[in-house]
Amino acid sequence: MKARGMLRFTLSILFAVQLSINPASAHSKLVNSIPSSNQVVNSHIHSVTLNFNEKILVLENETPNKIQVIQISSGKSTLGKLTVAKSQAKLRFSNSLDKGKYKVKYRVVSEDGHPVQGSYFFTVK
Description:
Elements: H1 2-20, E1 30-34, E2 40-41, E3 47-52, E4 66-71, E5 80-85, E6 88-93, E7 100-109, E8 115-124
């Protein structure tokens, strides 16, 4: 009986410890974007904004973060200036985007050092 009681006690301690540990998969994720996925935009687009649920890593001299906006018909990437503030990454273009379908590809590094990447599409009419 003592061995069973000790086993139950040990298992309950292990279970309590497991509940208190943060899950390892709780990294940054994209919460929303402007323009949003599959959105059809009727106005001039001068930037793409990505909002994450956690802060994004910012280094002094270089950024590990990247946003690419690619026009599907031409395959050309739109150049712009990337800024990162807290949990937001924004790519501003020098000119508005032409009409067409675009793919947004991103790779950012969350403050805990884990890379987060993904992509989505939107259309300018």
